[in-house]
Amino acid sequence: MTSGPISTALDRRHVLAEALRSRLWPIPAAAVLLAVLAGIGLPELDTAIDHRLPPAVAGYLFGGGADAAREVLSAIAASLITVTSLTFSLTLVTLQLASSQYSPRLLRTFAADRVVQRTLALFLGTFVYALTVLRTVRSDSGSTGFVPQLAVTAAYLLAVASVIALVLFLGHLVRQIRVETVLEQVRADTCATAARLLPTFPQNSSPVPMPEPAPDPHIIEATSSGFLVELDERGLLDAAAQCGALVWVERPVGSPVLAGAPVAFAWSTDPRQPLTEQTVDALGEQVRGALRIGSERTAVQDIGYGLRQMTDVVVRALSPGINDPTTAVHGLVAGTAVLTELLDRRLGPYTLCDEHDRVRVVVPRPTFTELLDLVCTQPRLYGADDPMLLDALMSMLRELAWKATTGEHHAAILDQLLRVQEHVTDHDAVTRSRLEHLARQVRGALDRHWTPTTKSDDPIPPGTGS
């Protein structure tokens, strides 16, 4: 519960970049525009320099007549639109597979794949370029005949590049749909978000105590339904400071929001000067403007979104229709890597202060306990009958216990351990023995008393207790 960093223009650029990155059309659209300009410009360049090119250079350019140029450009355009259709079809099949096999929330990750976007851009750009150049080819009839040698040669080179890109795209697509690749991408995005938003231990600034909630605050309601996807800290702080108020945001980023439900509370910081109705209305408009609500969650400011995606993969793998516990274990390993990174960072609600160090805004943020519960609860419930899954949960808690540094970390890990142990008694004696062994390792890691087993016939680490 410390004073947090203030959002800057850089944060707005992150939001805009994420919005563009997660859509399939911007890069192909830019490539089409560039292709049109190149298709107009290169023939003009041909007109200016074709007769000045030395023979050594002209020998490498297209040397056919107008009919040959038309055939080449027509063949390139026809083949590229076919290949583009194939690429779109493969991309859609991949998205459908990701939605059904892993999680619908991973579609955003696949749509943001740069290789897919650039491959489509190259194909569409080559197609449009060939069509644009084709309109400039004129048959030989006296002095009006024209064959843009540079432009046709460039079309040929783009066609060769497209063939190479198609081969590379197919190889990338096979690699991209592997669960290890998917989980690694989500892990990297989540860790990048945490590194950008969360301060590390120890924080240089002194802790700022959380204010006491007012007994009768003013309620600020949402005007639309969806998910809270962005929070403008600077906008909230300026609004609260101008009105002499304290704004307590009710929902963390990533939470569902319903129209008419409270999203924030506000009250005056000076009990002798309560907020007027006019001030509350103006403050409410500013606060609602600083809280952006969208139709889907994003990873820009949402710390828990990546863990939600990983947990979805685990739960989907444990479903009777798929029944793939190995994939579930991979998902838990990826979640463990993210939680380990978060152990070194400050989570939970934080405050924003004005230039006089007065608390003006309280911003909620998930705690480590909540994030650990997000990763553990559903896999534990759906995988209670699978020894491999319980083994992975115990191993995850053991790894986290080794790096736990605060009382909250210890309490959260111990609570999850006790919940997992409730399912141990439902298994056979060998499985129970192994899981109890792992449970003792978790407790020993929390207490920092146990050492790794050195003898194969001594399965219980010494000094762990029970």
TrEMBL record:
Location of the region described as Disordered in the Swiss-Prot/TrEMBL record: 446-466
Highest taxon listed in the record's lineage: Bacteria
Bias (Basic and acidic residues): 446-458
Transmembrane segments: 24-42, 72-95, 115-134, 146-170
UniProt keyword list: Membrane, Transmembrane, Transmembrane helix
Pfam families documented for this protein: DUF2254
Keyword Transmembrane: yes
The protein, known as: DUF2254 domain-containing protein
The organism of origin for this protein: Rhodococcus chondri
Source organism phylogeny: Bacteria, Bacillati, Actinomycetota, Actinomycetes, Mycobacteriales
